[in-house]
Amino acid sequence: MIRSVVRGTGAALPRRIMKNADFEGMVETSDEWIAQRTGIRQRHIAGDDETTASLGEAAARAALANAGLTPADIDLVVLATSTPNNTFPATAVDIQNRLGMHHGFAFDLQAVCSGFVYAVATADLYIRGGLAKRVLVIGSETFSRILDWSDRSTCVLFGDGAGAVVVEAGEGTGAIADRGVLAASLRSDGTHKDKLFVDGGPSTTGTVGHLRMEGREVFKHAVGMITDVIEATFAQAGITADDLDWFVPHQANKRIIDASAKKLGIAEQKVVVTVDLHGNTSAASVPLALSVAVADGRIKKGDLVLLEAMGGGFTWGAVLVRW
Ligand code: ACO
Description:
- Helices cover 31% and strands 26% of the residues.
- The strands form four sheets. It has a five-stranded mixed beta sheet, with helices on both faces. A four-stranded mixed beta sheet has the order 8-13-12-11, with helices on both faces. A two-stranded antiparallel ribbon has the order 2-3.
- The chain folds into two domains: 170 residues, Thiolase/Chalcone synthase (Peroxisomal Thiolase, Chain A, domain 1, 3-Layer(aba) Sandwich); 143 residues, Thiolase/Chalcone synthase (Peroxisomal Thiolase, Chain A, domain 1, 3-Layer(aba) Sandwich), CATH 3.40.47.
- By secondary structure, it is α/β, with parallel strands linked by helices.
- It is built from nine helices and 13 strands.
């Protein structure tokens, strides 16, 4: 059977680092409050010349180099983002052009913080369905552009960045020992749409809008939703938490990550955490964390890796991959 195998990873971060202490004087907050409640210590913020497309392009080039491939080898670009360069065309098409690709196809996928997990599951289906052989799956965001910088309850939480993977068709036997995407579960529930949203858009206000969040409400639902979708993925694959080598969760809040891992019985040393360095980069958070753990040698060929995310909508999902 066809399996969608990860061949390379890459990342890109804006030049400017903003530390927690840099918010003191801007809004009523402190390094201590932010670090204690979220685990965040710093985030990267895009400059005027850095956009979702430019960061996505840089992450894509890094993933291609890591895979030993060139843009000519790719036939599909899927970009997970909620902060596109323009309402249309899709920023994925912009990145395709920046890469010098005039073949294949490209589109954006919008599932907020769950975008990258949705995009990996989508790329897997395109590959197994025969529509693509090699896919660049990118998560790229510039949330700094949709933050209300006077709202301390949201502006301290988010950061900008991009991560990417190259996924290609490979041969498998159908067994759990196969390399590639082994199982996926995706969920959404629009009854929660007003708990985390942007208060603008082309069809309503005609403006871009700002991020609004009932943080406590999101927190209340997060752990239950995350653990449910992961248990469904474990059941699909016939594995338990003990079989995992690495858990790469969405990097929104260290307390949510710790509580989810504890409830699932995933050992602390198997959890990849980068929220301290990047803040919440929405659809970029999982591929950024992945590329850090691949680059530092933690995630190796043959490892069983669980990706998970939850975000606005609500949307949530998990993907199990043999590296
Ligand atoms: N600095 C200092 N105080 C603050 C700050 C701040 N930056 N922000 C809020 N506070 C205050 C509040 O006003 C409140 O004060 P009050 O008690 O006088 O009303 C107090 O701190 C406690 O506020 P809570 O909201 O209860 O704090 P909580 O412990 O819940 O932490 C947080 C807030 C970090 C936002 C948390 O709720 C959270 O992480 N929620 C989930 C966010 C998330 O995971 N999002 C993921 C999806 S993101 C996406 O999809 C785009």
